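Before relying on records like the one below, remember that each one covers exactly one chain. Contacts with other chains, cofactors or solvent are not represented anywhere in the record.
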Amino acid sequence: MVLESMTFDNQGQAKEFFQEMLSRYVPGERVSSDDAIHLRGLFQRHPEYAVKVGAGIDHFEVIPADYATRCFCAVRSDGTKERFSYLRCVTQKVD
């Protein structure tokens, strides 16, 4: 799997990398600019990226998700937020 900022030998490595990134943040915390470089490339792989990107991305946050978990959230330049699954970005599976 190839992103602009890095390459993974397989999807398993990418899943592990982004799961570890997600676990470093608490809900409500803004993702660091270093991590955002990789997350931006991953987000572009989302099957619904064209809709989710909206007016453009200002930054990323981690927010609470279902079943006491957390997920990444893209904060658009207009202030609206769009949560997304890093797993879906890695696998590019459509529901």
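Residues 11-23 form the longest helix (13 residues).
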